[in-house]
Amino acid sequence: MGSQITIGGVVVDVVLKDIKNVHLSVYPPTGRVRISAPKHMKADTIRLFAISKLPWIRQQQRKLKGQARESAREYLARESHYVWGKRHLLKVVEAASGPVSVTVRRSTLVLTVRPQSTTARKEALLGEWYRLQVRSAATPMIAKWEPILGVQASRLGVRRMKTKWGSCNPASRSLLLNQELAKKPPEFLEYIVVHELMHLLEPTHSPRFVALMDMHMPKWQFYRDELNRLPVGHEEW
């Protein structure tokens, strides 16, 4: 069940769900606000909660508006693309035969495609390559952290996500990672891996979750804040 309320000029989407606690989110790139609340919670209580959080909501929206964003990619020669936090210049090679591929040669990202390949095809090929990079890097990280945390994930998925760097379904023990992480320094991928694995111990961002993160990854809040300051992918949502 969904509805909207307006608080101080801020429109808030309200969704009533079968949950125990209220969750407030501000989503990039436009700063859309959503409150997920227990089904039994009264409208007045939700409104008061939103009012109490208004300064934080506005702060998050200002942060999103000021966040650096990548320009739209055209997949042309010498265009800048990032791999594990390092800038690479794109080289497009057209080949009528042989495999299409993406390879890294020092500071060059070589995209081998068929002649007259569309921008969408080039984007899809590079996106698939980024997904493989994240999966290849995350798999040993998960294997490293599972025994440390005493948990076991059942499945790893990687895809492009609009609003999250990662997610965890504690019921199915499955992890989902954003392919855009392959553009960021690898320590941020490890932070997201640990963050999502931690949800197998503590499903919410409770004080226990924070304490566990502090114990196992003392710099996690630094990684979180830095990751949120990095350029995010350009999309028209």
Oligomer: single chain
Low-confidence stretches: none
Strand order of the main beta sheet, please?
Answer: 1-2-4-3
How many helical stretches? Answer: 6
SS-derived structural category: alpha/beta
Binned, the helix content reads 25-40%
Q: What's the number of extended β-strand segments?
A: 11
Would you identify the CATH architecture of the largest domain?
A: 2-Layer Sandwich
Radius of gyration over C-alpha positions, nearest whole angstrom: 20 Å
Description of the molecule:
There is one protein chain. α4 crosses α6. β1 and β2 form a beta hairpin. The longest helix is centred in the middle third of the chain and has 31 residues, at 119-149. The protein has helices at 43-52, 54-66, 119-149, 186-198, 207-216, 220-229, and strands spanning 2-7, 10-17, 23-27, 32-38, 80-83, 86-94, 101-105, 108-113, 155-159, 166-169, 174-178. It starts with a strand and ends in an 8-residue tail after the last helix. It folds into 2 domains: 2-66, no CATH class; 80-229, 2-Layer Sandwich (Zincin-like). The chain is of the alpha/beta class and 237 residues long. A 4-stranded mixed beta sheet has the order 1-2-4-3, covered by helices on one side. Strands 5-6-8-7 form a 4-stranded mixed beta sheet, covered by helices on one side. The protein has a 3-stranded mixed beta sheet with strand order 9-11-10, covered by helices on one side. The protein has 6 helices and 11 strands. The model has no long low-confidence stretch (mean pLDDT 89). Helices cover 37% and strands 27% of the residues.
